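Weekly modeling sync, notes
Attendees: AB, CL, MP (scribe)

Item 1: holo prediction request
CL wants a bound-state model with zinc ion before deciding which constructs to order. AB pointed out that an apo prediction alone won't tell us much about the pocket. Agreed to run with the ligand included and paste results into these notes for async review.

Input as submitted:
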Amino acid sequence: MTDISSVFGRRVWDSRGNPTVEVTVTLSSGVVGRAIAPAGASRGTREAIDLRDGDRALRGMNVTKALANVNAPVAQALVGLDAGQQAAVDQALLALDPSPLKATLGGNATVATSLAVLHAAAADAAKPLWRYVSDRYGFSPSVPLPEIQIFGGGAHAGRRVDIQDFMIMVPGAASFDEVMEVTNEVYFAAGDIMAAKGKLAGVADEGGWWPAFSSNEEALETLVMAIEKAGEKPGDRVVISLDIAASEFGSAGRYRLSLEDREMDSGEMIDTLGQWLDAYPIVSIEDPLGEDDSDGMVEFTRRFGDRIQIIGDDFLVTNAALVDDAAAKGACNAVLMKVNQAGTVTEAIDAARAAMDVGWGVIVSARSGETEDVSISHLATGIGCGQLKVGSFQRSERMAKWNECLRIQDELGAGAFVGGAPLAKTWWGRQA
Ligand code: PGA
Ligand code: ZN
């Protein structure tokens, strides 16, 4: 009864007002699964490519071709397959598009289809998605510790600040609900401080404040002030996490912080980040160097890997082979898991497992272009990786994911929230 009877692609719209792909998969039992493709703005060059029409309509962003792929070749190949056999379904998608970056079908077509099949299989098993994933793949479920953006920068805020995400984590919280409460206080304290200084320019793509700072460090200083204004001691219950997204302002080992009119080589970039680590309670850094700066990543990890979490996003693009390679070289100690970077559920879970196998952290992540789809709240819980990155504390495409975690926490019961456990190996873990 878990045979796929139809696959249907529909055009819907994301949080930036761009068209995107929604797929509905129906099984012969009548059960339905549905998922929507998100979209990145600061994309890695090795991630699955979203197929966009590229013509004059909708600024080239239309998804007619991707939808046609879902509704014809994909539907034909998938009808009759067993939705419970996710690997076989994803293999059928790969067989239709053997190109390395899924440029033929479009990563937007494959990810929405693959996730919709997973949803359908879970619904058929009468299980919430998180439970289906943990049972099916043999993970122990847990409610993740969020990293939540307070200021947005980089490609998400007109490049007004070079660094992309200034986030907080609340590893000292006892429950997901407590994380939300503390975040509310810090988020609005930060907004008040910036408004008072005349530096609040609006809200960035992921809901964080859009700052008009005069240096990247001013953002860090303001974040510490906001944590204090919220009645917290920085580095105690609340800590800082950054996504440098360095590929956005650096390549070939040269980095240009335009806000400070400063150009650095890889070594100087590492030293600068090292100074920030000494001055601020930072426990996690994503993409500290460019996706092409493997030597820099190795050196950064050698110097700071025992002290903070070092996450590869653009550098690893949710790819198991790249995780294995980085682990062998000694670059990074955690991977960001974005299902649409890989293009299928199976490949994304493979990447997460590769990371777990070498003792790395895994952080399930949204994209800067999102929708009401809350699959990632379930995936993070279901694979029990302990961490989830969704963006900020405003805009419903973000809050929907946090709110879903609250519902899941109630289902899973007391003790399901991992708290600071994922950061136990870091500086914070040793302080706590
Ligand atoms: P993106 O960025 O979704 O715009 O690619 C998010 C991130 O870098 O984590
Ligand atoms: Zn990133």
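Recorded for review: The mean pLDDT is 97.
Action items: CL to compare against the apo run; MP to circulate these notes.
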